[in-house]
Amino acid sequence: GENVEQHPSTLSVQEGDSAVIKCTYSDSASNYFPWYKQELGKGPQLIIDIRSNVGEKKDQRIAVTLNKTAKHFSLHITETQPEDSAVYFCAAKSGTTDSWGKLQFGAGTQVVVTP
Amino acid sequence: DGGITQSPKYLFRKEGQNVTLSCEQNLNHDAMYWYRQDPGQGLRLIYYSQIVNDFQKGDIAEGYSVSREKKESFPLTVTSAQKNPTAFYLCASSIRLPHPGLTNTGELFFGEGSRLTVL
Questions:
Q1: How many CB atoms lie within 10 A of CB A107?
Q2: In this complex, is the C-beta atom of A32 within 8 Å of any C-beta atom belonging to chain B?
Q3: Is the peptide bond before A34 cis (omega within 30 degrees of 0)?
Q4: Is the pLDDT reported for residue B93 higher than 70?
């Protein structure tokens, strides 16, 4: 099955700096890669996603890149603000047709933005 | 407001007791899921259901049970057989079960979670 590894596990950045979180996946058939943000005491919420036929996607201060050959994808947050402090999860959706499109999540990255 | 409601938010249980976590959604979603969240381990799938009266085991179903008698409800029972039940439990839903061959899969909508502590 799919295995998703996420790094780093914790990331501390100064307000205004950029943050980058990287994930690798094992199943070359995976075709959809969402990122979820979990604020303290809340459930995760989708913030951006990318499909396998796209190399990069941007939404205001966040962007995601996908390298299918290397089987890795990254989340980039520019001009970080204190409200970006949260746990971020990457995920990969199985594209193997002998099963369903299950999402496999990474272990999460705790991002702390210090003023 | 549409969304997913989990209750209780916090729950304490003695060893040997079963406990049931509630999950209700008013999004008219067909698919519902239960995840377990432990520090450093991400989200692991316990059970999922794509339709009323049907559910399937996820990756870590041992010691858990579910039911899906109504489209809106997907309660999770943590039984005394679960060896390490202390965790944060998240319920989620999506329009339908994601198809592996389609790149536009349904977004997961999560509840705010239930934290279970076994004393």
A1: 19
A2: yes
A3: no
A4: yes
**Torsion from C-alpha of B65, B44, B54, A97, nearest 10 degrees:** -150
Contact between A12 and A34 under an 8 Å Cβ cutoff? The reply is no
Tokens of A83: 């409200």
Q: Is the Cβ pair B97, A100 closer than 8 Å?
A: yes
Q: Do A101 and B102 touch (CB under 8 A)?
A: yes
The owner of tokens 């959809």 is A32
- Cβ contact B11:B99 at 8 Å: no
Contact A42 B112 (CB under 8 A): yes
Q: Does the pLDDT at position B28 exceed 70?
A: yes
CA distance A63 to chain B (A): 18
State the first-to-last Cα distance of chain B, in angstroms, to the nearest integer: 36
Higher pLDDT, B17 or A1: B17
| Cα–Cα distance measured from residue B27 to residue B25, given in angstroms and rounded to the nearest whole number | 6
**Residue A55 CA: distances (Å) to CA of A101, B61, B98:** 21, 36, 22
Contact yes or no for B107 and A34 at CB 8 A: yes
Angstroms from A82 CA to nearest CA on chain B: 21
Per residue in A61-79, pLDDT (tens digit) is 999 999 999 999 999 999 9
* Number of residues that make up chain A: 115
| B60 at interface of A, judged by CB pairs closer than 8 A | no
Place of tokens 């914790």: A10
Confidence of residue A43 (pLDDT cuts 50, 70, 90): very high
Using CA atoms, how far apart are residues B88 and A41, in angstroms rounded to an integer? 10
